[in-house]
Amino acid sequence: MEIFQIRVALYESAEDNKLYVTNRIMMRIMQQFHYTNDKAYKAISSQLTWMFKASQPPRPRVHPFGAYFTDLSIETPNLAKKLRVPKSKIEYFFAFEDIGDLASIEGGRGEHIFYSPDDYQVVKNRQGPHGERIHAVMEKEQ
Amino acid sequence: MIGGVDIVIPTGADRRNAMVVSLRLIKRIWPDAVVEDADSDSGDKTAIGGGALIPEMMTDAFVYQNSEMALKWDELGAEPELADTMIHILVRNEEVTVVVDDPELESAQKFISGMRSALRMNIFAMATPHRGAAA
Question: Which residues pair with residue A43 across a beta bridge?
Fold first, then answer.
């Protein structure tokens, strides 16, 4: 009975609230993130289907050629240090639904860092929030 | 979107001891090293040794060459000018992952070879018999 009442309350709420609930549900489903800089963000976000290009991580060439992702969310403490990238490379983010098709890297960081050996496409219905990371963190905190 | 080299070292040591061994080895190479809990958002850095306690549950740590380098990492992240000034340690069941910029650089080489020797000996995993136990 209580659950039913909560559902009714949600469906009867204002349009803004419905959107808020929908966004919250989407944020829970979204498991993978791609962080990047201004230039790459503009290039990827301009396409209907997001295309993350596979490339060779910087020298020394130890990690496999691929497109890299993480399930570490936008507000993760020490994000740049964990990914071991300059802060400029985490200024922008893409979030999308994880469908379990990414490989993890070897070792402890493999719990959170994943890759696709080929270019990786994310179609519209898997796409989630994206934009400037700091702004998104501030919005979440409010 | 990934940097560094991940070196996985198998060990029989438990997590706490693996972290203590790692920090002790780094201290020999970087006498002024400071450590930060990677999962904390406090930004606090602690000097290794000198009676300072390492948090009991810390399994992910950033260890910096010194406090000056730690501040630069906070400001910039992994810029090339900061190469070989921070080691990321992740202790897990039966393995320690060490993330460095380049395992061929001198301090990284010293640390990794020291880690391999110490953790493979498994001296920290040995059970200590209680006094009075039957022979």
Answer: none
Q: Which chain A residues contact residue B60 at CB under 8 A?
A: 82, 108
Residues 35-54 of A with CB under 8 A from B: 35-36
ipTM beyond 0.90? no
pLDDT in tens, B9-38: 988 888 888 898 899 999 999 999 999 999
B40 touches chain A (CB under 8 A): yes
Give the CATH number of domain B5-121: 3.30.310
CA distance B28 to chain A (A): 23
- Determine phi and psi for B9, rounding to 5 degrees: -115, 115
- What is the C-alpha separation between A87 and A79, in angstroms, rounded? 9
Which residues on chain A are in Cβ contact (under 8 Å) with B36? 78
The fold for domain A30-141 equals ADP-ribosylation fold (3.20.170)
> Is B63 touching A (CB cutoff 8 A)?
no
How does pLDDT run across B41-59, given as a tens digit for each residue?
Answer: 999 999 987 666 677 688 9
| Residue B66 and residue B86 in contact, taking contact as beta carbons nearer than 8 Å | no
pTM over 0.90: no
- Rounded Cα distance, A70 and A110, in Å: 9
